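Our working data are protein records whose layout never changes between entries. The record below serves as our worked example for the rest of this section:
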Amino acid sequence: MAEHEDSGVVTTDDHGGTVRHLTLPGGPLAEATARRLVTIVDHLAEDRAVRVVTLSSRRVPFCPGPAPGFEPLSIDPDPAAAVARLRVPVVVAVEGACHSVGLELVLAADVRLCSTDATFALPDVADGRLPCWGGTQRLARAVRPAEATSMLLLGTELDAERATALGLVHQVVDDPSAALTATAQTLATRGPLALEMAKEAVHRGAELPLRDGLRLEGDLNHQLAATEDRAEGLQAFFDKRPPDFAGR
């Protein structure tokens, strides 16, 4: 397992290099860390060996907001946009406060886990600014519009239980680190092309009328049917063995 640290971001390879763990320092997000995260994620987007990306923090809280003096609008593209563009599944584990840019970053992930003490909020409006890393849009797609409005206008804070009930978080876990690793390793055994296409179908389909979304699903199925991974999956089923997907 290889580990590297740069500008507060630790990157670790796992599961034969198919899983890449990204670990933030925790606490207020510094500009240097945010910029480095964008650079790392952009490189991962070009690495076909990577099948799953995870995001967590070394210390609690995960991220209560930007560090003093850091203007989030100064980064373009921002870290949340970079994460959202990844073709592979992104799993995030949150401990403690996840507010402002921290929540915006988490909303860009596909699977969201949290500890029992996690809290979620977008207090930006109360501070005289708007969320600028996609928070106003991704939040309203993750929870009910009324709840999103309350979080945005009133700065309402959600605890782990409420966040899970609303669908903002997928699971509350006792050991976020262990759950993050287990979830990533499970995803790494799945067909990478099927995972990518399933993610594309959900995200692109959410912006389309149902008829066009169904057409997208059909098109992706036809593309997947012509791949080596699809043939391997069928053969493994008949051979009663785990499939060995190659991502082709």
Observations:
- DSSP finds ten helices and ten strands in the chain.
- The first helix runs from residue 31 to 45.
- The beta strands are 3-6, 9-14, 19-24, 52-57, 90-94, 97-99, 111-114, 119-121, 158-159, 171-172.
- Residues 1-6 have pLDDT under 50 and may be disordered.
